[in-house]
Specification:
Helix content: under 10%
Strand order of the largest sheet: 1-2-16-10-9-4-7
Structural class: mainly beta
Distance between the termini: 43 Å
Largest sheet: 7 strands, antiparallel
Number of helices: 0
Order of helices and strands: EEEEEEEEEEEEEEEE
Shape: globular
Number of strands: 16
Length: 204
């Protein structure tokens, strides 16, 4: 398997990530980026008041080991619904996860598979910082740093506590290799894997 990842900064305040891969044997391949974000600044409190929107009307429920069950369920009327800007922590009290927080894959609304389209946006009210995410991938994983415990020290000596950041990981669905109803993650010889993910930053 040969993989190339290119990171670029554009004149439009975007971080653009381009992935390419080829293989000489059929290979499961599901690449993503696991960057942590806190739009108030690294180590500056938690992200529970950040407002999040995800362009997804469905998600993939998980079992007790956080592996998708194979079901694709609607978010409407559940704690998984981020179809409009909603504080990330506003429904933590209703979550039945341990530790409490989000670590779930969302099925992005796509008019055409593989198109570069809007996936999510997150807004931090105090700073006015806004991050929008665009991707060619069919899914996005929301993770709210549920396992951070202050043992990791970052820039300026600031420790990273639980829920000190969030991740939006553009990807195919987890466990797709074992789920025939999920989009395939098998790369075959003669094929070229490509993916584009864009993080666009602004203030408002």
């Amino acid at each position: 398997l040969q993989i190339e990842v290119t990171y670029g900064l554009t004149g439009e305040d975007e971080l653009r990530i381009e992935y390419e891969a080829t293989t000489d044997q059929p290979t499961p391949l599901n690449l993503t980026n696991h960057s942590y974000f806190n739009l108030a600044g690294a180590g500056n409190g938690d992200i529970l008041s950040h407002e999040l929107e995800i362009n997804a009307s469905h998600f993939t429920p998980v079992d007790e080991t956080s592996i998708p069950t194979g079901e694709i369920a609607p978010v409407a009327g559940t704690v998984m619904d981020f179809t409009r800007l909603t504080p990330i922590g506003s429904r933590f009290g209703q979550l039945r996860t341990s530790p409490v927080g989000y670590d779930h894959n969302y099925v992005l609304n796509k008019s055409k598979p593989g198109e570069l389209s809007f996936a999510a946006q997150c807004y931090e009210p105090k700073s006015g910082r806004l991050m929008k995410v665009f991707t060619t991938e069919p899914g996005i994983q929301l993770y709210t740093a549920n396992y951070l415990d202050g043992k990791v020290t970052g820039k300026g000596g600031k420790s990273y506590q639980k829920n000190a950041a969030f991740c939006l990981e553009c990807q195919h669905f987890p466990d797709s290799v074992n789920r025939s109803n999920f989009p395939s993650v098998i790369l075959n010889p003669g094929e070229r894997y490509t993916q584009t993910t864009v993080h666009k930053f602004s203030t408002r």
